[in-house]
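Lab notebook: predicted structure, single chain.

Context: the supervisor wants predicted structures on file for every construct in the current expression panel, including those that have not yet been purified. This is the next one on the list. No modifications to the sequence; it matches the entry in the shared construct table.
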Amino acid sequence: MALNIRGGSLTEALLQLSQQAGIELLFDRDVTAGKQAPGVRGAMPPRAALKRLLQDSGLVVRRSSTGLFVVERPSAPTLARQDVTVPEVLVIGRRSQNADIRRLETDIQPYRVATGSEIQHAGRDNLDQYFASRVPSNTTTVSPSLDFNGATNSQIDLRGLGPEATLVLIDGRRMPGIPAQVQGFLQPDLNALPLHAIDRVEVLTGAAGGIYGYGAQGGVVNIVLARGLTGVELHAAGGVTSRGDARQITLEGRIGASLNDGRTDLMLFAAGSQAEPLLNGERAFVARDAKLNSDLAPQQSNKTGGGSVFVTSLNSSLLVLKPAYGGETLSSTFSYLPPGLSGNSSEIAQAIALNAGRISSELSEGAAASQLSSTPRTAAVLANVRHRFDGGVEAYADAVMLWNRGRYRWRQVDGFGDLAATSPLNPFTQAIQVTYPIEAAEGDRTTEIDSARYAVGVVAPLPQGWRATAEAAIGSARYAYAERKPFYGRPFVANTPPVSPFGDWEAFQAALIPGIGTTLRALTLETELRNLSLRLAGPVFQTPHGPATLSLLAEENTESVPAYDVVTGSGATSTVSTIAARRTVTTSLYGEFRAPVFGPQATPLLRNLEVQLAARGDSQADEFARNPYAPDSERLDHRYTDASFTLGAKVTPAQWLALRASYATSAAPPLMGELLQAKSQTRTSDPQRGGPAETFSLTSGGSLDLQSVKVDTASFGVILTPLGEEGPRLTVDYSGIRKTRGIFAPDMATILQFEHLWPQRVTRGPLTDADRARGYTAGPIVALDARRDNSARAEFDMIDASLDWRAALLDGRLRVYGEGAYYLRQRSITPIGSSANKVNYLTSPLAQRANLGADWSIGQVTVGANMQYFGSYRIIPPAEDQDPTLIAAAKAIQGSMRVPAQTYVDLNVSWRGELPLASAAREIKVDLGVINVFDRAPPRESSLAVFQTLGLATSGYSRYGDPRRRRFLLTVSTIF
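Prediction complete. Output recorded below exactly as produced.
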């Protein structure tokens, strides 16, 4: 491999080697400060280059068991070893604020680690887009920004257990949860985080409660921010599609300084981003879907005519035009006028006759000007100060402030009216219904999500080589939603004077404006965070192969949501509803033990054995109102206490082979709303009695007897390095996830159908002789219990694979990488039976997801390409897949039972060099990315089929793809 490292500062030379060789290199900058290194040029392995750089420094380099290169003093204390397995914030010389142990892809558990540079080169606007395109274990099918509610927050769903089961951390700490309406919290938003502020992202899939606590049933995502950098960095990025629309701009800046002879580090990072909306008329998805819905299944298609004036005969007879319009009998019971058509009676009749039996796929002016998805505007401020006192004591203050504004706007609603056969506005001889667009109507949905966390802490040395950090933090998360939804409050025939849709289009639209009304909905709620924590870590004993370490944590986390108002209304009338306050206090104790037990001389099955044992206890106390909609109702207190653990081991039977296995558990208390029950009087048919429905007492909703949901994960993996440390690394892991004590909510019909399974749920009166005479087999229902219980289970099985190969090529450095996920099974089990395998269905994980890429660096230039693959999936979910009628209908509308597989290819070119700026040479980096270079359109996902099966609104395309299609992203960075 050809290297070109300038002589001078050892610190800078080590950073250059890490970048040019593509290796992970750890060192304490306090140790390398003031030391010089010779220049290194030519082709050589990284280890040889390191030895040259360190030859006069008095420092040594070693290769850790996890593959890292570590530069240190020959006899460094345990917590000064840069790869020591304790929280990074406690490692001597580390500038990181990460409160978790540094996790690696070669770790005992199957972590996935993406560096900040890899994320930046992916060409995505934010972390949500990165996870959607590059992380196969993320099963989110529709990102919030691709929906229509104005939200542009991130949503990560590892393994398909739901976003609420994926824990999101920043620097190993919990951000305030976004308050959900009435109950619970949404996943913290990551989309405002500046990508250039990220050092790396660590992802662990499967249960992780033994390390991270509640909320980690499906896995954990830890965003580790870059710290300890000095100087000034500026980044400007601009994006635009090949069609010149959907422009996006991002500005980021960092300033860092080291003061007081290196004892004080200051850092401030600020960023802002804004995007233009993408409109329906700028892409063909909506029109394409409407046309195919009509062509493939005209009898099922939504006969509203899209943006046209759509006419249907009310007596189901063929449409017949009046003599004034030519008197022609049409070949269908429906027809339409194209959007915006104006003309005389002859022109109107000609258009109606031409379109008989057809449904328009054209968009009206208002529909074309409506947004295809929600549009974001974000800002962020990150600040950190850290000071080192005498005696090894350090103090720090840290702030993370994020703002995200999302908006969705649309410009059309449909109106309708009936015209009698005698109406002078009716061009037909029979009564008709007319549906038409109202283009002056404007709707708007906005979602604002603000998050902040402020922390102060002290790091202090302890006896026996231990260190501790005590930290206090406060924070908040604000969620605000506002909707202005138009409607048309009267039929056009009520206008005075009446205006016909069959004539002057502009006059007709103008006459509709006075009838447009608006409904309003607005709410703002906030989470208030308070967190206290104490972390300790250090060596427990020394083995011949390295230190055994123990990390401990005691923490109390309080999240409170004050009472808030929901405002709804129409016009000048509004109603205010108050939702009661709630609070959650979680107390946690955690410990993680790591030790290298045997070395390379042990028997193969024990060679280089490393073990991991983590245990955590969490106790959650919830305080909430018995009736959230009645703030003065009785207050309830409920507590859950759970213990979880992680046990893992790794061995290397051969130099080219490592084996790892782990077993981990996790727990999740029920949501507050799942604890609330309701009582009412109701009636329903009784399969054991027949006859008229009878009234009885119903208890429904939740139960205070619910237990925490449990999730366990068993993982087994192999790491292959057939050519040694300089060759390819192939990793394959199997994970089996088992969910028990899941929440099951049976409905009344199910309970009565399977009453023999739940005799305790149904209370009946005596079976009388009169009942027997009528043929009844049971007495009347007196009471029925339909409350939730813990009888559901689920099973998930999957295989993950990753490849990383770095090699010299043509005087440069080539890296080939890839990863994929193959989902074998996702099955739900209830007392009444088990579901079909949910993999490869709409709203469920794809069976296959993968990405494969290569980067080649030579000198100052890096060229890269990446391909993302999404497997095909069935258009309807498995529950509906058992209904032959629904299958036939969906197949007819979609044209196939499956949405085809998707492949997208990105290209990236980077140049790093120096240019004269401000009378001095400044380091400049230019990145040009072409995303979806072949301009592949996402395949059609029939909006009508999805609505019929799930009741969901879509835009007629698969949202695994990006509706912007091919786009260009240019980023210019400079360092002062």
